[in-house]
Description:
With 275 residues, the chain is mainly alpha-helical. It has helices spanning 2-32, 52-59, 63-94, 100-110, 115-128, 135-160, 163-171, 176-187, 189-205, 208-212, 222-227, 239-259, 261-270. The protein has two domains: 1-50, no CATH class; 57-270, MetI-like (MetI-like fold). 73% of the residues lie in helices and 0% in strands. Mean pLDDT is 83; it is low at 270-275.
Amino acid sequence: xxxxxxxxxxxxxxxxxxxxxxxxxxxxxxxxxxxxxxxxxxxxxxxxxxxxxxxxxxxxxxxxxxxxxxxxxxxxxxxxxxxxxxxxxxxxxxxxxxxxxxxxxxxxxxxxxxxxxxxxxxxxxxxxxxxxxxxxxxxxxxxxxxxxxxxxxxxxxxxxxxxxxxxxxxxxxxxxxxxxxxxxxxxxxxxxxxxxxxxxxxxxxxxxxxxxxxxxxxxxxxxxxxxxxxxxxxxxxxxxxxxxxxxxxxxxxxxxxxxxxxxxxxxxxxxxxxx
Length: 275
């Protein structure tokens, strides 16, 4: 009798967690299809499904350009984070030198600084490089958030790879660059997918740097563009348009997670090699 009750309690707990996690997005989705007074009425299924809010998001705002900016910045961040992460992971995970552990700890410590603590210094750097109000400036600033985590995770997986693989490649005459590209990168693919996706999500959702380092509507990313949708008062805010824009920018992330979910699990749990 105890086992069925325990199983029932487990399923109830899972259902409660799913409801807690999914319901806000579900309610935002159905709100995106409402208009007028329906927006302020509590209902869990719209009477009519309207696409007016989605059309208004792209008609009245440079929302398409904002999505393009977010996509460009996120892809640049992923490419740079993985490139730097793999190179640094090879040095920290395979090359022995004094102070390696201290350096790896310092890399992890950099990720613990709050964004606001480095905001002023990063602003001066972006302005000195003439990258203010430029997607390249955002991509550069986001590396401060994504690179430490990427280096730490990939270094952990790099150390777990058999040293015999590298020794065999060295005997065959492969240099460090060739060993890294032809041997380690394929083996690190699950970890790279996991860390790359997390870097993409971090860059896609980042708000503080995007708000500080952009000035014009056509250069802003989607979180800032949505946050700056304004109205004369709280009740006059276009909540339907805000919800439609929020749902639109969330769907790509959900699609990416569903597409790469197996590689994400493999990268975060099983490791780079399977014994």
